Amino acid sequence: MASTAGGLPWDSAVTTLTNDLTGPVATGVSVVAFLAAGSTLIFGEDLGGISKKLLYVVLGAAVMVLGNKFLSVLGLTGAMVF
């Protein structure tokens, strides 16, 4: 049975994690990761399958963080799933 009187015990940890993943440091790191991974995919001719997949994962994570920041700048809100 769920408690209806207050929040769940992990609410503060999830809120802290969300704030850490959407803060200015995470945005800066995601910009650098996006540029580095994108330029490596564009200019890296001799990449193997594993390294390409890893770069796609980095690009995906960077796009998720930057997309959230970009949408909040436009005034749009939505669900954020990690």
Supply database-style keywords.
mainly alpha
Structure class: mainly alpha
- The average pLDDT score comes to 78
Secondary-structure element pattern, one letter each: HHH
Low-confidence stretches: none
Shape: elongated
Instruction: Tell me the fraction of residues in β-strands, as a range.
Output: under 5%
Describe the structure.
By secondary structure, the chain is mostly helical. It has a domain at 49-75. Helix content is 68%, strand content 0%. It has three helices and no strands. It has helices at residues 11-21, 24-43, 49-73. The mean pLDDT is 78.
Helices, strands, pairings?
Elements: H1 11-21, H2 24-43, H3 49-73
Helix pairs in contact: 2-3
Describe the structure concisely.
With 82 residues, this protein is mainly α. The chain has three helices and no strands.
